[in-house]
Amino acid sequence: MKVEDFDYPLDETLIAQTPIPKRDESRLMILNRKTGEIEHQKFYNIIEYLHEGDALVLNDTKVIPARLIGVKEDTKATIELLLLNDIGNNVWTSLTKPAKRVKVGTIVSFGDGLLKAKCVKVLDDGIRHFELIYDGILMEILDKLGNTPLPPYIHEQLNDKDRYQTVYAKNVGSAAAPTAGLHFTEELLEKIKARGVKVLFITLHVGLGTFRPVMVSDVKEHHMHSEYYSLSKEVAMELNKVKEQGGRIIAVGTTSTRTLETVMTKYHRFQEASGLTDIFIYPGYEYKAIDGLITNFHLPKSTLIMLVSAFAKKEYIINAYMVAQKERYRFFSFGDAMLII
Question: How far is Cα 80 from Cα 315, in angstroms, rounded to an integer?
Fold first, then answer.
């Protein structure tokens, strides 16, 4: 299976540069994964496709202001860090630019020394491990010094940084937002609950995989970077109950999907679990956990379009993307949504 199989011609003028004024007024494409049939709706009408007894599963991770621009203490050269994940003892994995200037022992200073990062390990692909040195509370310091790490295809300034957070973001730790969840408002979630749908939260901290293109030609040779996930005992019990009673599990986003499929693959049922997952889902994978998926429109040849092409037929997905462009849907992080069911 070739990466090229997941390419499609993209009209780049459709890449959404800013969020629309009201989250739930984005457009929503409904794709029947069994027939390929397509409907067009507004996102707030998603409630009509959720049934009493279903579970809606959302990722409550919160994006940190993880993009830092500082200077090397010795040469004053500008260095950019994108903090990806905390591996313990104030050591963080970071995407580093220009990485070739950073060796073990290099110290990068931010905010006139308010925060310092000492390189303790050099890895491939621009990755470094840094020990962070500071006084006080790290997240407060990052709020002062850091910027929201928007995807590279977004060139506009984000005026309201909360628009790159879901309204239910809680657990700090992501380098990117779980963007399918950006369409929900608190009011819409309350209406969904009132319909008898269980609204449940899991956590997956979005890391390096989001920023890395697939560099191999054969899909099976691609290696997913690990990301931290957590599923609570209470949520696991609710999910098992929904399955037992014949309800559907609708995942909001590829991150929720990967978490649920990781747990189900490992334990053959939902149970309390946390750790690192590098699950890579592409056509041929048999879904075990979810019955529906809410997702945005993804980049050509990305692991995300591979994941959705495993849930519906690849031909249906590519056709849906062509229809979306004809209908002038907005693409990628700040774009419109699709419900595959």
Answer: 40
CA distances to 7, 136, 172, 216, 230 from 92, rounded to whole Å, are: 34, 17, 14, 27, 19
Residue 29's nearest CA partner among 265, 322, 307, 277 is: 322
Domain encompassing residue 183: 3-63+160-340
Q: Which of 320, 328, 266 is nearest to 293 (CA)?
A: 320
**What is the chain's length?**
341
Q: Which two tokens stand for residue 293?
A: 């998926």
Q: What are the tens digits of pLDDT across the range 298-335?
A: 999 999 999 999 999 999 999 999 999 999 999 999 99
Query: What does the pLDDT read at residue 246?
Result: 97
Distance CA 231, CA 238 (A): 11
Q: What contacts 197, CB < 8 A, 6 or more positions away?
A: 50, 51, 52, 53, 54, 55, 56
- pLDDT recorded at residue 54: 98
Whether residue 123 sits in one domain with residue 190 = no
Structure token pair of residue 273:
């679990």
Tell me how far apart the alpha carbons of residues 62 and 203 are, in angstroms, rounded to a whole number. Answer: 9
Residue after which a domain boundary falls, among 145, 171, 189: 145
pLDDT digits (tens, 9 = 90+) for 167-182: 999 999 999 999 999 9
**Domain co-membership, 104 together with 58:** no
As a whole number, mean pLDDT of residues 28-50 equals 98
Give the pLDDT band of residue 199 (cuts 50, 70, 90): very high
Q: What is the pLDDT of residue 149?
A: 87
Do residues 117 and 110 lie in contact, with contact meaning Cβ atoms separated by under 8 Å?
yes
| Mean pLDDT score, 107-136 | 96
73 and 49 together in one domain:
no
Q: Let me know whether 99 and 170 are in one domain.
A: no
Q: Specify which residues 40 forms β-bridges with.
A: 29
User: Residue 301 maps to which CATH number?
Assistant: 3.40.1780.10
